[in-house]
Amino acid sequence: xxxxxxxxxxxxxxxxxxxxxxxxxxxxxxxLVGRNGTGKTSLLRLIAGELAPDAGEVxxxxxxxxxxxxxxxxxxxxxPLEAVLAADRERSRLLERAARAREASEIAEVHTxxxxxxxxxxxxxxxxxxxxxxFSEEDQGRPLATFSGGWRxxxxxxxxxxxxxxxxLLDEPTNHLDxxxxxxxxxxxxxxxxxxxxxxxxxxxxxxVP
Length: 210
Prior knowledge:
The protein is α/β, with parallel strands linked by helices. It folds into two domains: 1-65 and 168-173 and 194-210, Rossmann fold (3-Layer(aba) Sandwich), CATH 3.40.50; 72-164, no CATH class. The protein has eight helices and seven strands, in the order βββαββαααααβαβα. It has helices at 40-47, 80-86, 89-100, 104-116, 122-132, 149-163, 179-190, 203-208; strands at residues 2-11, 14-24, 29-32, 55-60, 66-68, 167-171, 195-199. A four-stranded parallel beta sheet has the order 3-7-6-5, sandwiched between helices.
């Protein structure tokens, strides 16, 4: 699924990676631990295509969906539940098409695809993820602007988990979580059905998410 071959990466005059090799197969889970400033986050950005290597090659299987938490916390009048559901852009586009469609063939096509992606069950699944990360039913209906930055970052994490990308890149995902939400996330990641690359200072967490 992912291969790094003899990759060198420099940032700000510092060499963060030099002749680095990495292979991650479909369904595999990998944890990274290390001191601050050693390039762990930069490696995730490199894999996500946000940075380009100075040398070497990054190869990804064609068509895979990569997920990484947005750097900016969502805000505005949208609610946490609406924000998580909006993260699935295909579902949003299909629902808009369904509302506009007039031809029977198009209506059938759109509803077939909505069924294939589990669109009807999406609100319940999004609510379940938000609940696991500490949002009560009432909280899920409040405007994002009423939450602190830490809670809005939980919404960003919930959106990423809701999408279930083929390759999930997580960088210190427990930073904004209390113990209860962190325990829920750990259990969720243990059951995650796709490929996971997890950066954390918590060695126990890395050991418990096989």
